[in-house]
Amino acid sequence: MKEFNVEGLCLPELHYMVDIEEQLLAIEKLVSRRKYFTINRGRQYGKTTILHALKRKLDEEYCVFLLSFEGIGADAFSSSATFCKHLFKLFYDTIEFGEVTGIPDEITEQLYDLSREDAKPTTLQTFTDFVVKICKQVEKPVVLIVDEVDAASNNDLFITFLGRLRDMYLRRMTRPTFHSVILAGVYDVKNLKEKIRPEDKRVTNSPWNIAAQFDVDMSLSKKGILEMLSEYEADHQTGMDINEMSSLIYDYTSGYPFLVSRLCKLLDEEVAESDEFEHKSLAWTKKGFLVALRVILTEQNTLFESLTGKLIDFPGLNKMIYRLLFSGMQMGYNIDNPATSIAEMFGFIKNKNHIAVISNRIFETRLYNRYLSTDEMESNDIYEASLREKSQFIINGHLNMRRILERFVVHFNDLYGDCDEIFLEEDGRKYFLLFIKSIINGIGNYYVEARTRSMGKTDVIVDYGGEQYIIEMKIWRGNEYHTRGEQQLVGYLDDYRVDKGYMLSFNFNKKKQIGVQDIVIGDKLIVEAVV
């Protein structure tokens, strides 16, 4: 029986997988055009899986060497001779274990001799000569794929290796060389020198400036997720609503491969086995999905550890993500901004209609939780106020959102009513999220709706006990703007199929009337709070 896999390479014979044939065809087209290029995506974005699938697809027409620098070790870069020996060993192992066939015995023996521990020292010129020889003698065009190049990319010797590949590429019309070269990792190889140089000596030119643009969308589509769940359903007969489940998974992950697989694995193996659900048919529901979502939002795994580490290592990135989350304003996508480039490279953001947005709802909520869980935040007066009053906001398992807004208005005005406009605009939303976080923590979750984020307003969707609460947070810009905001909120309520919505307005007018009131528009009820 197949299973969902989040531990390394996914294989269609063993694992439930989204069909990636469309991506493979796009990459195969680049190979057929003899392109050298880089596949750089965030951690656990399915790079290794797609490279192995690509090799199987290319094997009939090409001689494909698929190498990995994972685990190569820092000692491999102690000298050019040591690096070359490791490189030859990687080539030899692919032949020894039958991953590459059709290699003349003479070349195989030469590779063995060059990779032995007692082999005489060699240089990168030896490697170049070997490439010319193998590409001349092998009947098929030779393709080189190197996975996990990040393991080597913080070393000047690797830059020299790239320079060799570049030189061979430029001479490809007069001497045999690789038909195509693919380097895969997290870091964009074109910017490796930015990684290995000290801050005051950074440069952005690279010997990999020959690389073709790689624009293949490697995220998983909603249609692909639906087809994967259909295969699972055929095996398990859960009776799930496949359309609903695939929509939920895609809406929260935006097709990030690890997150898709992790949610499915949680539903299949943990949620379905918990005391809350008697069998799989009850687990594969929206209620079960929200339980799986709650788990993934609180667990530690290598992906989230990597993201957190990047925020620590790159202060500019950390500052950008914080502003993107809490400023309540759209941020233009500017690839020339180093922070934007790094944020996209590590998978934090994506380009959506020239606007930088957090890649998916799960990342966004994890990031909010990170910033709202610092010692400074949790010792905040408004956070402590929500903790003290938490019991009055939950009645028979349901959130009393009106009561939450009423108490937030009181506490916020007591604590921050005299603060200036800049404080309210920059920190008001943050303190509401902090207030509500302590109330729903452990049971519900929240996310900010990226499509409604603008200079003046932000929509927060709270999931609690299977119910959704839509809260529009906005800066007061006058009566006309306010009325237009109410109409927009009514439209969002239609989208989410709920009859009641909430509005939290931060008003800078000194004569404002604070408090909570009901507004009826058509068949919708809006509970509005003003601070």
Describe this structure in words.
The chain is an alpha/beta fold and 531 residues long. The chain folds into three domains: 21-201, Rossmann fold; 222-296; 379-530, no CATH class. The protein has 21 helices and 15 strands.
CATH fold-level assignment of the largest domain: Rossmann fold
CATH architectural designation of the largest domain = 3-Layer(aba) Sandwich
User: What do the pLDDT scores average to?
Assistant: 88
Number of DSSP helical runs: 21
- What Rg, in angstroms, do the CA atoms define? 27 Å
CATH superfamily of the largest domain: P-loop containing nucleotide triphosphate hydrolases
Ranges where pLDDT stays below 50 over 5 or more residues in a row are: 196-204, 452-456
Q: What percent strand?
A: 15-25%
Whole-number count of domains:
3
Based on Cα principal axes, name the global outline.
elongated
Topology:
Elements: H1 21-32, E1 36-40, H2 47-58, E2 63-68, H3 80-96, H4 105-115, H5 124-137, E3 142-147, H6 156-170, E4 180-185, H7 192-196, H8 222-236, H9 242-253, H10 257-271, H11 280-283, H12 286-296, H13 302-313, H14 315-326, E5 331-332, H15 338-345, E6 349-352, E7 355-358, H16 361-371, H17 375-378, H18 381-388, E8 394-395, E9 398-399, H19 401-416, H20 421-440, E10 445-449, E11 457-464, E12 467-475, H21 479-496, E13 500-506, E14 515-521, E15 524-530
Parallel strand pairs: 1-4, 2-3, 3-4, 12-13, 13-15
Antiparallel strand pairs: 5-7, 6-7, 8-9, 10-11, 11-12, 14-15
